């Protein structure tokens, strides 16, 4: 499944939220036809530079009064010059900022009018190439005059779908001004994104930066695209490993993958999930499963809080305190003063990796692991803390001992699971 990019129309509003640039992979920057001026273009290009967003030109009919959403009668040679001038101004400012303009997409009424008229389509494409060069990628409809015009001059072409627009039964967009034309519900935008990408007919999805709730919709659509673009690695005939984005709740991943027919076991860690299955009946692509997961109204119920009583008597406590420049009491206080979440379970049955540790007491693992760590020892390693369920070798810094705690029971398994919340309570 080829990655699908999120493009957002930007540089159009005076109070634009910069968070949109963190979600956008391509920013279509208004360059004067329907909106935008030198100041807004500079601001948009600077935001692209800060967030690593690719810049694109977003030319339009010259119609600021109606925001470029009214079709105008313009001769092709005039339209070509107008598009070229808009793109050239953006390109000049981009060269000063140091952000190349690698994409182009016509805006609003021009997008639709040119896609129906080969002469207008060629005028748009020629204007773009004349200012931005032949290396630009054209973003446009999946079929029509614009795609043919771009192909005729050898431009790379990205087929576009709209995550924040409603569609008619034939798949065309509901005209603006009609009920359901513009979406504001992030859940609907997620469903649109999933449907369009899994349909295999788009290379990029658009969210309009001036839509109500644009930030929330962009965040949800980007999450769907990130999941669908994840890399999978086969691990023999009946297993595979899948990289996981940080935003995806790990317990939800575990439950969704385990529920698939033919899956024998699933192991979810902090960065990856491993899925084991019957090779004669392989399950559905896990990226599709997790892509649908993001459309659920609630992923997982909040887990109960587990309180673990501990004595701060570990053999490494004083050394840890000295290395971070704090007292022993300060280390204990910082360790016991925050709530942790189980990030993964492994190494030993019931060994839960808990995070995040307060940065002031984060210390690296021991350079030489111990050959034996006693059961119920509480350790620190980087941003993680954990409780050894059994006596075993281990390289964590031992600062405490859990009291009256059982991490693993043979009849019921591990006490702590993914997403569980843990609080340490200091006892004497």
Describe the fold and architecture:
By secondary structure, this protein is an alpha/beta fold. It has twelve helices and 22 strands. The chain has helices at 19-23, 38-51, 76-97, 108-116, 118-132, 145-152, 186-198, 214-228, 250-258, 286-293, 317-324, 328-336; strands at 5-10, 26-30, 54-58, 101-104, 137-140, 156-162, 204-208, 232-234, 239-243, 263-268, 272-277, 305-311, 339-345, 352-355, 370-373, 377-381, 384-387, 392-394, 397-402, 408-409, 413-414, 421-426. The strands form five sheets. It has a seven-stranded parallel beta barrel, surrounded by six helices. It has a seven-stranded mixed β-sheet with strand order 14-13-22-12-19-16-17. Strand 6, helix 7 and strand 7 form a beta-alpha-beta unit. Helix 5 packs across helix 6 (145-152) and helix 9 (250-258) packs across helix 10 (286-293). The longest helix has 22 residues, at 76-97. The model has no long low-confidence stretch (mean pLDDT 93).
Q: Indicate the percent of residues in helices.
A: 25-40%
Span of the ends, CA to CA: 57 Å
Spans where pLDDT lies below 50 across 5 or more residues: none
Q: Which strand order do you get reading across the main beta sheet? A: 1-2-3-4-5-6-7
Main beta sheet: strand number and arrangement? 7 strands, parallel, barrel
User: So what's the overall shape?
Assistant: elongated
Structural class: alpha/beta
Average pLDDT value?
93
- Number of DSSP-assigned strands: 22
Number of helices: 12
Classify the beta-strand content into a percent band: 15-25%
Radius of gyration: 27 Å
């Amino acid at each position: 499944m080829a990655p699908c990019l999120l493009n957002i129309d930007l540089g159009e509003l005076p109070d634009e939220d910069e968070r949109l640039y963190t979600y956008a992979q391509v920013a279509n920057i208004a360059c004067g036809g329907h909106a935008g001026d030198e100041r807004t273009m500079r601001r948009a290009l600077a935001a692209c530079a800060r967030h690593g967003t690719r810049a694109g030109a977003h030319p339009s009919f010259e119609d600021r009064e109606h925001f470029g959403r009214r079709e105008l009668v313009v001769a092709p040679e005039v339209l070509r010059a107008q598009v070229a001038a808009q793109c050239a101004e953006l390109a000049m400012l981009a060269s000063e900022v140091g952000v190349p303009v690698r994409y182009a997409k016509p805006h609003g009424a021009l997008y639709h009018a040119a896609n129906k008229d080969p002469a207008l389509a060629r005028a748009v494409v020629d204007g773009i190439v004349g200012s931005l060069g032949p290396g630009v990628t054209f973003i446009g409809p999946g079929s029509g005059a614009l795609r043919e015009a771009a192909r005729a001059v050898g431009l790379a072409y990205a087929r576009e779908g709209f995550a924040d627009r409603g569609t008619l039964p034939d798949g065309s967009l509901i005209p603006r001004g009609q009920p359901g034309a513009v979406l504001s519900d992030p859940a609907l935008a997620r469903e649109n994104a999933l449907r369009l990408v899994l349909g295999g007919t788009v290379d990029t999805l658009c969210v309009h930066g001036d839509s109500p709730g644009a930030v929330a919709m962009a965040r949800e659509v980007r999450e769907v695209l990130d999941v669908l673009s994840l890399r999978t690695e086969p691990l023999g005939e009946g297993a595979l490993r899948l990289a996981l984005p940080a935003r995806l709740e790990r317990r939800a991943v575990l439950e969704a993958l385990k529920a698939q027919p033919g899956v024998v076991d699933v192991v979810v860690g902090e960065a990856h999930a491993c899925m084991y299955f019957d090779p004669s009946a392989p399950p559905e692509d896990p990226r599709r499963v997790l892509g649908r997961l993001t459309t659920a109204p609630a992923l997982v119920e909040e887990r109960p809080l587990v309180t673990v009583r501990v004595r701060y008597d570990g053999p490494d406590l004083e050394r840890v305190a000295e290395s971070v420049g704090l007292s022993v009491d300060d280390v204990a206080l910082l360790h016991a003063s925050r709530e942790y979440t189980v990030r993964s379970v492994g190494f030993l049955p019931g060994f839960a990796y808990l995070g995040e540790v307060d940065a002031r007491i984060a210390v690296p693992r021991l350079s030489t692991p111990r050959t034996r760590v006693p059961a119920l020892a509480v350790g620190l390693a980087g941003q993680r803390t954990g409780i050894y369920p059994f006596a075993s070798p281990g390289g964590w810094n031992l600062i405490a001992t859990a009291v009256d705690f059982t991490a693993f029971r043979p009849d019921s398994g591990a006490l702590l699971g993914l997403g569980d919340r843990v609080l340490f309570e200091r006892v004497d």
